[in-house]
Design goal:
8 strands, alpha/beta, 47% helix, 288 residues, 11 helices, binds flavin-adenine dinucleotide
């Protein structure tokens, strides 16, 4: 099923994200986690794409398993910065042959060895969106950044480029993680004002490892509210306590989002079914 149709037919849509194993890592534990996550019957399962390194077939394998064997709609991610036009075309055709109808079109992070003089076939996700559209009738998602993308000096320019990407053919957007809902509400107001009207799915990261999240937030420029920092300071050194606090924080964030009219919730599961299921159970009456 196309995600845009799911979004228009339900009050609240819940999606999970999984990532495939890295090169030379075993597949079975990831597949077991995927199977467990699908028991929750999320509205769709998003499968990330390793930029470069020839691991794209793992995305296809998992997305196809989710769709065909587990009966859950899948969203296959696809990055373009490290790929040639031919590689991208082949990946899209593989998705099509596997019956995958939804693709999250991403640029991917610029690799350390990227040669800007030489350039590449794709510079921005908007170019990938146009390429996907040439290959068939896919439902296309895009990424967005409520706090602005880390490479973009001005938030308003980031929204200008986001509008360009949506106009190229994006049907819905999924956000980068954020820990202060007011940042999302402010972003939604600004993008709506600029004419971006597609559905926006809010990306929620349940924090189970305080130190790791502090590092990745520093890299991505994600704001950590004082309330959140206090929790990490208090429980960050005790994995069980941090996990419980992280689940509670994510649950509260989601309840506030839904209460304020947000219709799409995306959980970055980090391949941890127990964490996603605890959040799901906390919301059993709120998300049917
Ligand atoms: P773009 O939309 O191309 O934007 C990248 C930068 O270029 C921004 O700063 C933007 O403002 C700027 N820009 C865009 N167009 C123009 C233009 N015309 N002129 C000048 N500047 C422009 N990474 C992976 O490797 N695999 C994944 O599976 C993956 N999944 C993700 C899922 C979500 C929901 C999110 C939020 C991110 C994901 N990422 C993934 C990370 C993503 O690839 C990086 O954040 C990457 O740096 C940007 O990708 P993008 O598609 O948002 O790029």
């Amino acid at each position: 099923m196309k995600i845009i149709d799911i979004l228009s037919s339900k009050d609240v849509v819940l999606s999970y994200e999984v990532f495939p194993p890295k090169k030379d890592m075993p597949f079975e534990p990831i597949m077991a986690a995927v199977d467990k996550l699908c028991e929750d019957k999320p509205d769709f399962m998003s499968v990330t794409y390793g930029a470069g390194g020839g691991v794209g077939h793992n995305t296809l394998k998992i997305a196809e398993h989710v769709e065909k064997d587990l009966g859950v709609t899948s969203l296959a991610h696809l990055t373009c910065i490290s790929s040639t036009k031919e590689q991208v075309a082949a990946a899209i055709e593989d998705f099509k042959a596997a019956g995958i109808q939804n693709i999250l079109a991403l640029r991917g992070d610029i690799p350390a060895d990227y040669d800007s003089e030489k350039g590449s076939d794709f510079r921005y996700a908007s170019e990938l969106v146009r390429e996907i559209k040439k290959h068939g009738d896919f439902c296309i998602g895009g990424a967005c950044y409520p706090e602005g993308h880390v490479e973009c000096a001005h938030k308003e320019d980031d929204i200008t480029y986001l509008k360009e990407k949506v106009d190229a053919g994006v049907d819905f957007l999924t956000t980068q993680m954020f820990f202060d809902n007011n940042i999302l509400y402010n972003f939604l107001y600004r993008i709506r004002e600029r004419g971006i009207t597609v559905p926006v799915i809010a990306g929620i990261m349940p924090v189970t490892n305080g130190k790791q999240i502090a590092r990745s937030c520093q890299l991505s420029g994600t704001y950590l509210p004082a309330r959140f920092k206090t929790i990490v300071d208090k429980f960050g050194d005790d994995p069980e306590k941090m996990k419980q606090a992280g689940i509670a924080y994510a649950t509260e964030q989601i309840i506030d989002l839904i209460a304020n009219g947000v219709k799409g919730i995306h959980i970055y599961t980090m391949n941890k079914p127990d964490v996603a299921q605890s959040i799901r159970n906390n919301l059993s009456k709120i998300i049917g």
